[in-house]
Structure formats: structure tokens, C-alpha cells
Amino acid sequence: MSPPSKAVFYENHGPPDTVTKSIIQLPPVEIKANDVCVKMLASPINPSDINRIEGVYPVRPPVPAVGGYEGVGEVHSVGSAVQGISPGDLVMASPPSPGTWQTHVVKDKSFWHKLDRGTPVEYAATITVNPLTAFRMMEDYVDLKSGDSIVQNGATSMVGQCVIQLAKLRGIHTINIIRDRSGSDEAKEKLKKLGADQVYTEGQLDVKNVKSLLGDVPEPALGFNCVGGNASSLVLKFLRQGGTMVTYGGMAKKPVTVSTSSFIFKELSLKGFWLQKWLGPDKTEACRETIDYLLGLIREGKLKYK
């Protein structure tokens, strides 16, 4: 049997600060032959976690439910038929699955991916949703070559930081857009230290021709939008003829608007990215290979984020 588990629990969908106020103790769970019991060490809070609790995310567990989706832990005990995973091993839920906001999780061995023991816990806990999103968006839409460029809004986000560094490793330029706010100069400096070529606040792009700002950086073939509203329009302004904008979030909760001329004369393409479609059972092996690659970059000091 597993130890009792303390969990962030919600009985109904609604505002997270209202429906997740209770932390409950769950009873011990039987550990079957192929099960692995993991003592969770860290599990992040992603925007999609909030959406699941609110009941607006397309894929969500039935209520009542335990929150969380990705995370890392240490193996507490294993079932009698489990091989290749032992107590004390560092493992992560891969692909992610609901219920990681608790102290102990019992799932079939197939849910767990064994990691190098030296992997930093904070990175292992957060590697799937955001860094994997950055990696896949750079791979799946445009055949990027060294010397090409990408434009993105939400550049200070975890995805944005990963895009900058992954692009730099491939010799790809990045044009980065951030919100007008106090501390924007510090944010710009941080992104440039990560490898950003250009960083602008939205207010700085209130000019007739944003492409006049590019200098030696080529017009981008690919753009990433996680904000919506005016911030997405700024991404579109930078794109070259036939460019593609990929939307993977909508933090401003405002629609993406595109001018008719952008479609007719610039022949722009708009795409959407949803990581969930890349985390199906048929993609488990590819997902884990990519995660191992990204964690390798982290251990080498080539990828970092906060």
C-alpha cells in the first residue's frame, strides 16, 4: 500500500482561489504488480491547470479531482512485476497526466519516465508543457534554416525564453515583443543575455513600418502568439510574404484580428498549436526522446528559464 497522500482537491469547477481551498488527505492506495508509487517533489502551476479547474479546458478530469498535470518525484515503492525502475529513482510523469498536486501518486509503470539523478528538480518538473511547446513549434510549421528569424510576443514567458535559446543554438534570429510595464528595461536585458537579437515593448512598435527596425535581421518567416489582441497584430506586421503565425495561447483574452490585405497581398497563414495533440500514447517515445534532449541542454547550461 502507498502512504496516505495530501492533495489539492476540488469538488466542482470554478475560480481556483475558491474551489481549491481544501487540502485533503487521501487514503492509502493498493500498489498493483505493474504500479509505481512516487513521492512527488515538485509540480508547477500552468495556465492550463487553471483552465482545467475552471472547467474551460477541452481536456480535463471529471470532478471531484486532484489538480496538477506535470511534475517530478522520487520512487517510493514499486509493484512486484516492475523492472527498470527502483525506489530512489527520479521519475517524471510522461506524457503528463492529471493529479500531480499531491504528495504521493500511484500509476502504472508506463506513466513514468526515469531521469538522470543529477537532473535539477525544478527543470524536470516543468520541462514538458513549456519547453516542449517551444521545441515543437519551431519544428512543425516552417523549415527553419540557420540565418532565418522568428518573431514572438510574450517573450518573457517560459516558452518565449526557450524559443530564444533554442533558436540561438540553431543560428536563428529572434525578434521579441514584451508588454509596456515597469521593469521593461530589465526584462529586455535579461532576454538579450539569453540570446535575443531584438526586444521591443508594444509601445515601441507603434510606428508605420516596423520592418524598418530590423536592420540586418531578415524578415521572419515564422511568428508565435500567446497573447492575442493587439500583440498578435504586431507579430503579423513583422512577417514576410507567405509567413506563418502560430497561436498557442491567449493570455489577453482578446481575439486575433487579421486585416484582409494580410491574407490577400501577403498570403499569411494562421495556425494553432495545442500540445495535448502531441502527447498521445502513440507519441510517448518521441516525447520522451525530446524531453531527454532538452534536459541534456539544461545540464550542459545551454537552456535555462525562470
UniProtKB/TrEMBL annotation:
Entry superkingdom: Eukaryota
Stated name of the protein: Enoyl-[acyl-carrier-protein] reductase, mitochondrial
Catalyzed reaction equations: a 2,3-saturated acyl-[ACP] + NADP(+) = a (2E)-enoyl-[ACP] + NADPH + H(+)
The Enoyl reductase (ER) domain, residue ranges: 14-247
Record-stated family: Belongs to the zinc-containing alcohol dehydrogenase family. Quinone oxidoreductase subfamily.
Keyword list, A-Z: Fatty acid biosynthesis, Fatty acid metabolism, Lipid biosynthesis, Lipid metabolism, Mitochondrion, NADP, Oxidoreductase, Transit peptide
Top-level EC class as recorded in UniProt: oxidoreductase
CDD domains in the cross-refs: ETR
EC number: 1.3.1.104
A Pfam family the protein falls into: ADH_N
Any GO BP annotation: fatty acid biosynthetic process
Entry's localization field: Mitochondrion
InterPro entries: ADH-like_C (IPR013149), ADH-like_N (IPR013154), ER (IPR020843), GroES-like_sf (IPR011032), Mito_Enoyl-ACP_Reductase (IPR051034), NAD(P)-bd_dom_sf (IPR036291)
SMART domains assigned to the protein according to its UniProt record, in alphabetical order: PKS_ER
GO molecular function terms attached to this record: enoyl-[acyl-carrier-protein] reductase (NADPH) activity
GO cellular component, one term: mitochondrion
